Amino acid sequence: MLRACAVLLSTASAGAMFYVGLYQSRIVERLWCPLNGKGCEAVADASFARPFGVPDGHIAAALYLVIMGLLLVPSRPHWAWIMLIALGLLAVAGNVIGVYDMARLGSFCTYCLLTTAASPLLLWALWRLK
């Protein structure tokens, strides 16, 4: 049950961030932003949304896909669980920093807030898998 919950949360987060990344790469022309109007585009276009010149949507999607991949390994060794916890902590930290940056910008991205809300639940589920 916990593994399924973690897979669901990481899949939803990866999908949301991949969509934002597609906009940041201009593969998608406009972001549909429920609840926040043009906030998603303002956040995705902000300077802080491209660490190292790479769209953060792609970075986050890759992070969640690695988590999902580790979750789908049939018998995980102890190092894999430690890696899951480290990646879960990284997701929580990245999301907290992102919300701080969004607050400073004065705009909020629905997809970023979704992954921010999901990340502590994901970390809890990963922790409980031990």
Question: What would your notes on this structure say?
Answer:
The structure is a single chain. The chain has one domain: de novo design (two linked rop proteins) (Up-down Bundle), CATH 1.20.1440.130. The chain has five helices and no strands. It has helices spanning 2-24, 39-44, 56-71, 78-105, 110-128. Helix 1 runs antiparallel to helix 3. The chain starts with a helix and ends with a helix. By secondary structure, it is mainly alpha-helical.
Summarize the structure.
This protein has 130 residues and is mainly alpha-helical. The chain contains five helices and no strands.
Topology:
Elements: H1 2-24, H2 39-44, H3 56-71, H4 78-105, H5 110-128
Average pLDDT, rounded to a whole number, is: 95
Helices and strands, in order, run as HHHHH
Radius of gyration over C-alpha positions, nearest whole angstrom = 15 Å
- The second-level CATH architecture is Up-down Bundle
Low-pLDDT runs of 5+ residues are none
The major beta sheet can be summarized as:
none
Instruction: Figure out the total of helices.
Output: 5
What fold name goes in the CATH topology slot?
Answer: de novo design (two linked rop proteins)
Strand segment count: 0
The CATH superfamily name is VKOR domain
Fraction of residues in helix = over 70%
Which structural class do the helices and strands define? Answer: mainly alpha
